[in-house]
Amino acid sequence: MFEQFEAHIAAYADLTPDELKYMRSLSVTRKLRRRQLLLQEGEVCRWKTFITKGLLRTYYTREDGSEHIMRFAAENSWIVDHQSYNDQTPSKYNIEAVEDTEIILWTRENFDRLLLAIPAIRDLSERLKSNSLDASQDRIRMNISYTAEEKYQAFITSFPDIFRRVPLHMVASYLGVSRETLSRVRHAQLKRQGENGMV
Prior knowledge:
Residues 11-115 form the Cyclic nucleotide-binding domain. InterPro entries: cNMP-bd_dom, cNMP-bd_dom_sf, RmlC-like_jellyroll. This is CRP-like cAMP-binding protein. The longest helix has 27 residues, at 119-145. A hairpin with a 5-residue loop joins strand 4 (55-61) and strand 5. The radius of gyration is 19 Å and the shape is globular. Helices cover 51% and strands 22% of the residues. The strands form 2 sheets. The protein has a 4-stranded antiparallel beta sheet. It has a 4-stranded antiparallel beta sheet with strand order 2-7-4-5. The protein has 2 domains: 2-132, Jelly Rolls; 146-199. Helix 8 packs across helix 9 (179-195). The chain has 9 helices and 8 strands.
């Protein structure tokens, strides 16, 4: 499991064998079954998590029981509830395995040790935070200005692999549209593609 992390991190940070060994020594590996929670609403997020296999989703549940997906995270990506992790406050979100998933985790204390000991990890962490902020801003812009059709097209263009791996009701939840609206949009797009000879 850690070997996959090493292969991935090599593209983003130039780490020595000793630095990788130190990272490994401070890490914990886990396997999650489909629908198993990594983080439950009300708990404090104590881990920074790297996904080596599988797919996770971050979501919150309204009082009426409806779910709203904030993010999907697949192989070779990181997932954390930043607010809960940074402030050590109860999370407003759940993080759940959509598929059987394998992860590497570092506690906040251990990741802080890595940030102090390995400048390349500190730089990578800053880039990841910046990328996360950019993605959040793009998501807000999409939600307040895109039509349902534009949201759907942006999702399948940006996340084709995730689109193939999650059920339509989760895509609808992520896009902030009803399942009926998504079905209508999808049907209209498939019909257009058929008329254009693309199907």
